[in-house]
Each structure stands twice: as structure tokens, then as C-alpha cells.
Amino acid sequence: MSLRSWATPLVIGSFLLMGVTGVLMFFHLDTATMKTVHEWAGFVLVAGAIAHLVLNWRPFTLYLRRPLAAAIIGFGALALVATFVPNLIPGVVEGAGLGPKVVMDAMGNATIPALAEMAGKPTDALMAQFEAAGLTAIDPAKTVKQNAAGDGGKLREILSVALVPQG
């Protein structure tokens, strides 16, 4: 099997996987499985991109002679360098500020009684809401994350039942 027969399809397939899972993860619509697959698919995408680059080296070097193409590639390289600067965007780097990740982590680490208090409800009333929503295995002694057992969808469902006004 030649490199040409699999390099481009590998890039396309892994890009599709990375793109869809990346967007879902951005909006916190992921699961533990999705995060793991996304991370490993990144290695597959890099391998495919390297193979694709090897096959298309001459056309690639011709792109670098075009000002717009060189500028786009240069911008990508600068953006990559910027990702290594700690606290560049407050709230995005863990611990750098009060971003969505910090808030979600704090709520995920809350016990069910603490979550009920945040929602302004008695724990018993919140437990009844969980039951009505079909969340029957919620243990009030555990944190929200422990109750979700690594499932991002279930974590959001628990938080939604607790925090989104009903009716």
C-alpha cells in the first residue's frame, strides 16, 4: 500500500473527527470518551499531515512564496507560540481567572446539598427533581462529578435540573 493511498484520507477523516469533537468540547457537550478519542485523534491527524506534507513537499514550498499563504501559515505558527504563554487569556488557563472552566469545576466538585444551596432549594426538593427527571441514582453524599461518573452529558443534566428554573 502506497503512502499516497492513505495519507490524504487519513488527514480528512481525522480532521473531521477532531473538528466535530473539538466544537462539542468547546461548548462542554462532551463525554469522557469523546475527550480521550479527541486527544488520540490529534496524534493520528499529525501523522497523516506529516505523510501528506512528505508527498506534497514541492507544492508546499511553492505556497510559501505566496504572500497570503505565507501570512496565514505564519499566523498559525504565531498562534501556536502564544498557546505556550501562561495566563495570556484570563479564565482560559486553569487558575488564571474566573472563566467557565473554573466555574464548572467548582460546581462539579460541590456535593448535592451544596448544589441545592446554590440553587436556593432544600436538598430534599432537589432530590425529588432529580427523581422526576429520571436521575434516580444520585447520591447526596457524593459530588456532582462523582454522581456523573465521568459523563459530561450527565454532569450537565444534573446541573441543569438543579440550576435551570423549571416551568
Give a written overview of the molecule.
This protein is mainly α and 167 residues long. The chain has nine helices and no strands. The chain has helices at residues 3-26, 32-55, 57-63, 67-82, 100-108, 112-119, 123-132, 144-148, 152-163. The longest helix is centred in the first third of the chain and has 24 residues, at 3-26. The termini are far apart.
Summarize the structure.
The protein is 69% helix and 0% strand. It has 167 residues and is mainly alpha-helical.
Give the tally of β-strands: 0
Task: Give the N-to-C terminal Cα separation.
Answer: 60 Å
Percentage of residues in strands: under 5%
Q: Please tell me the overall pLDDT.
A: 87
Structural class: mainly alpha
Uncertain parts: none
Count of DSSP helices?
9
**What's the main sheet like?**
none
Q: Assign a percent range to the helix content.
A: 55-70%
What pattern of helices and strands is seen along the backbone? Answer: HHHHHHHHH
Kindly provide the radius of gyration, computed on alpha-carbon positions and rounded to a whole number of angstroms. Answer: 22 Å
| Shape descriptor | elongated
Oligomeric state of the chains in view: single chain
Topology summary:
Elements: H1 3-26, H2 32-55, H3 57-63, H4 67-82, H5 100-108, H6 112-119, H7 123-132, H8 144-148, H9 152-163
What labels would you give this structure?
69% helix; 167 residues; 9 helices; mainly alpha
